[in-house]
Amino acid sequence: MENLAGSFAKAGRYYARSWGAYLGGTHNELPVARPTLSLATHALRDELVLVGLLWRRPLSDPEQYEQIDREIHQAVDYYGTRGWLDNPEGFFTAPQQAPRDVSVRSHTTRNRTHERISFDSGYQPHPGEPGAERWMSYTGNRRGYALMLRHRDESGPEPRPWLVCVHGTEMGRAGLDLALFRAWHLHEDFGLNVILPVLPMHGPRARGLPKGAVFPGENVLDDVHGTAQSVWDVRRVIAWIRAQQPDARIGLNGISLGGFVSALVAGLDDDLTCAILGVPPSNLVELLGRHSGLTAEDPRRTTLELAKPIGRMVSPLSLEPKVPAKGRFIYAGVADRIVHPRQQVMQLWEHWGRPDIGWYRGGHTGFFQARPVQRYVDAALVQSGLAAGNTETGGAEKGEPNGS
Fold first, then answer.
1. How many domains are there within the chain?
2. Could you say which of 157, 258, 267, 368 would form a disulfide bridge with 254 (CB–CB 3.0 to 4.6 Å)?
3. Residue 302 belongs to what H/E stretch?
């Protein structure tokens, strides 16, 4: 009950601060929306979601946290010695080949048939990497999974383009992912082949996990390995597509954690048509530290400070985007209480060269109900050249948020 009461109090403080910013006329690249009860409701919903996320991710006591602290000390030395803290591209190993043991099965629900694929991930931490043995004990991660909506009529002069949709935290479930990405709409109305990989420790890959093991969570090295394997697995899926259709255009579409992963892949892969990042964090260590609830005097704060170079190493801010400028898109909520618009989204927007950005009047969890977001994603697919059409995104670079 204390956490619930705190959620209402935080949402109330957000509403009060919003009026101050709005009346104070503070206008810059981050749009200032007129505060409304609807906007406050979005903020409250985010705060309640945070309660649920933190319930799944309780802080360890200081004694247990000592193991995390030891690993971070070891990791800073390990990554620093290899130069990866300054050159993170060397940390992210590229898959040398597409998966060959791919199993494809049809699944019908409500008179609609999609395919479910599985394959050996093949991900291995670097030799001697801190936390590697524990990560490899999470056996559910060894097999990769994805949903697929694929057209069979490849009779045109070019293969149909592919859109890789990368889900967020607590997703990775078929019905939820297909709905939140509006996958059937993208498949049927735009003629895209759509594939939705499942990230490590999510969906079917969460089976058999020990209590308290989550990604992302407080264990920094699990977050590092989770990020590395997520990037690896998405690149394996892309390699599989290219093995089937070498000339097909491929784009990325990520939500929240999936936006973070997509941004990393977009900084490593040389031949993507577009990357659409929805409510994307840019630094997981900073994000988790912000929501940890630790006081300034808590010794565990020192551990998070020590982990900052590691957070930067696995941040898309450390990689230059390789996606063409016209194929970079970001959308975010002005009332996001989970991924802070200024501290997280704006940093990524700046780093990506200030690409087209769309703001909607809502919180982190409000994207799936925001019609401007739906229109923005549709238009981005066309504007990037991945899909055919003549829509424009109408991003909010002038500082005015799109309507809801």
1. 1
2. 258
3. helix 300-306
- Maximum CA extent, the chain: 65
> What pairs with residue 144 in β-bridges?
119
For residue 311, give every residue at least 6 positions away whose Cβ sits within 8 Å of its Cβ, in sequence order, or none: 220, 283, 284, 285, 286
Task: Tell whether 102 is covered by a domain.
Answer: yes
Is residue 330 in some structural domain? yes
DSSP 312-368: HHTSGGGS---S-GGGEEEEEETT-SSS-IIIIIHHHHHHTTS-EEEEESS-GGGGG
Closest by CA to 356, choosing from 337, 377, 342, 371, is 377
Measured CA to CA, the distance from residue 347 to residue 319 in angstroms comes to 13
- CB proximity list for 287: less than 8 A, separation 6 or greater: 216, 281, 339, 344
> 47 near 336, Cβ under 8 Å?
no
Note if the pTM is more than 0.85.
Answer: yes
Per-block mean pLDDT, blocks of 10 residues, the chain (404 long): 40 37 47 54 59 57 82 98 96 93 92 94 97 97 98 78 95 93 96 98 95 90 98 98 96 98 98 98 88 71 91 98 98 87 92 95 77 94 90 45 38
CATH number at residue 344: 3.40.50.1820
Q: Exposure string (b/e) for 238-276, b if CB count within 10 Å is 16 or more? A: bbbbeeebeebbbbbbbbbbbbbbbbbbbbbbeebbbbb
Q: Is residue 97 part of a domain?
A: yes
Range of the domain at 325: 69-383
CA nearest 164: which of 233, 80, 211, 227?
A: 233
Is residue 289 exposed (0-12), middle (13-18) or buried (19+ Cβ within 10 Å)?
buried
Q: Which residue, 300, 315, 313, is CA-closest to 352? A: 315
Backbone φ/ψ region at 108: left (φ over 0), alpha (ψ -120 to 50), beta: beta
Which tokens sit at 378? 């549709």
**Which backbone phi and psi does 260 adopt, to 5 degrees?**
-60, -50
Dihedral angle computed from the Cα positions of residues 103, 166, 7 and 331, in that order, rounded to the nearest 10 degrees: -160
Residue identified by tokens 């909010």 is: 396
Does residue 271 contact residue 239 with C-beta atoms inside 8 Å?
no
Residue 402 is given by DSSP the state B
168 inside domain: yes
Measure CA 311 to chain center: 15
